[in-house]
């Protein structure tokens, strides 16, 4: 029974690469065509594969629907939290996780700094969208037309002398973030707070969340915080791997 299940499951990645005929499936599995046909018929009955008019097989709509449903029910916060805690234990600074929802970037998780100087950010609170490092990552991943349309609707409050002043400057910064794959907020929201952030990506490569490490400059210098960037990016990659199913929680530790 386990061998049958194993063979049936082995068909799915083959068809994910494109339609295949019975002979190709049999060759990939190393079985007779009659065995491959029996497996394909069973998968077809359950909507996991579909036989085209040219007699080749492709992935079925039911499998795609199940995958979509599973992705929608994944809790990125639950997956990310242990990684955020681990990073916080290693560096000691405040760690955030944020998502983009309904034209706002919201913090959905936070692990407090071990230092007495604390940040006033709160879970569920929108971030300063034009300056926050997590916001830059989430918005930089939007299609260009959507980025431009959004930039034109935003206000650009000058929180500090380093705040993003207008839409052209914001779009230029988003393009830079998009190219380099990480972001910073170096005193753009509060003069005394610096932040480095990295993206969390789903199976399709799109940014589904952003995580960051933030610290006041009385605790750590800008250069010292920027030196944590590789560690932040490794943590984001570990969350991405687990969220997308490329790795397990144990493998990403």
Automatic annotation (TrEMBL):
This is IclR family transcriptional regulator. Residues 62-245 form the IclR-ED domain. The keyword Transcription regulation applies. InterPro entries: GAF-like_dom_sf, HTH_MetabolicPath_Reg, Tscrpt_reg_IclR_C, Tscrpt_reg_IclR_N, WH-like_DNA-bd_sf, WH_DNA-bd_sf. It comes from the Bacteria. Residues 2-61 form the HTH iclR-type domain. The keyword Transcription regulation applies. It comes from Streptomyces pseudovenezuelae.
